[in-house]
Design goal:
alpha/beta, Rossmann fold, phosphoadenylyl-sulfate reductase (thioredoxin) activity, two-stranded antiparallel sheet, cytoplasm, PAPS_reductase_CysH, Phosphoadenosine 5'-phosphosulfate reductase
Length: 276
Amino acid sequence: MTDTGHTQVGHTFKSNGTWDTNSHQIVEEIDKPKLHLEFVNQELSNADAHSIVTWASSTFGDGLVMSTSFGIQAAVMLHLVTQIIPDIPVIWVDTGYLPSETYRFADELTKRLNLNLKVYQSPLSPARMETLYGKLWDQNDLDSLNLYDKLRKVEPMQRALKELNATAWLAGIRRDQTNHRKTLRLVDVQAERYKIHPILTWNARDIYQYLTAHDLPYHPYFDLGYVTVGDWHSSRPLMADDENERNTRFNGLKQECGLHLPLTPEEAQSLDASSL
């Protein structure tokens, strides 16, 4: 695996969950195409996922990246996109708390699909985070979970997007997963970058059919009853009384980990101060 972004030189960790480099605030200027989103979404409304990825490739060129969690259905997007853009940078945020099966699954898919994998982690080690804050996932409150996600997921992802000079980001999220995702468009903007969702309108049957047609694997936890998997401490199998698959994550306290949510002004300022 290609491993980048594992260290962040010159960061001073602050007690409020930010990093300070004692430098001037950095304001990012991204040279990206100017799109009329209503027109673009109308034009792509009847396009299939392959066509949407092809459009994104021709529109954004080297500025296009994709993300993966190596979750239950990750093979779909990884295969779909790399059949069209073989060398696309694939961002994986490794929280340091993933199940061992996820690391093995990631290795399997990376080798099989010859992924151009870019691994990013928080500059704050799991041991140091737990010393400073305790087990944030085990405190049964939303503020602790939000801080955990900011430290282990959002900051590394934003750093990856900047270091890779990304102007657009392909993500394999679907409308049927969370309330927030129901509101998304095929092409949107998040944190000053375009975000493209090729399988936004797919459902579980579409996923199954694609995996079967291309002889692709589910994550090993699928056979254990998981429909979504993230960190080992915040994921569980689906139960009969679960109203939504995302109820199996984060102790049911939240549906989103923050990667696919807009940054608040405070978060954007904090990330700028950390040399993002």
